[in-house]
User: Fold these one by one.
Assistant:
Number 1:
Amino acid sequence: MLKKVVSRAIRLRGYIEQVGEEDFFGICLTVNVCTRGKSLAETEQNLLEAVGLYLESAAKENAIPKWVPRRAPLYHRLRYISIWLRLVFSPPSYDAQLMSRVVYA
């Protein structure tokens, strides 16, 4: 008997920002997974890997509906909005990046 595979689209939102010299913090607000790195690129790679592992674990447990979304605390969601506003209305000297990706799990 064939097992039916059902996947759903999940929009991942998050941000990465510089918090010190060669120190970046990244968080995925959708599943409340965070990481650090020495550059924007490294932090983004680390964050995508961490989120991938989280979703893989959820899929193995057949618990995607229970594990996603697992929203980040309000502080981080407000920080996301703050970074978005700063990126839209200020010069591009601010070292941060917003993330929005769609994955299927």
Number 2:
Amino acid sequence: MSETPLARAIAAAGSASELARKIGVTAQAIYQWRQVPAERCLAVSQTTGIALHELRPDIYPDPTVALPPNPDRVPLERAGIDPRVADKVA
């Protein structure tokens, strides 16, 4: 079985106690977690370098996965915008 995101975060910090100290909670709190709580994801990610989508894929989408096409999107040409300068249009 693969290591859980929480276990990876603890290992990256060095220990549960060290992770707790770095993010401002008690080690007992860390030991009670089944997964990183949503309100602690940013602190854990910043402390460990583990991406948010790896810590909690249920609430943070993987930015490398393409989003489905938006059927309401109007092509730049139809909107009267030259695609060569689209990034310069506010």
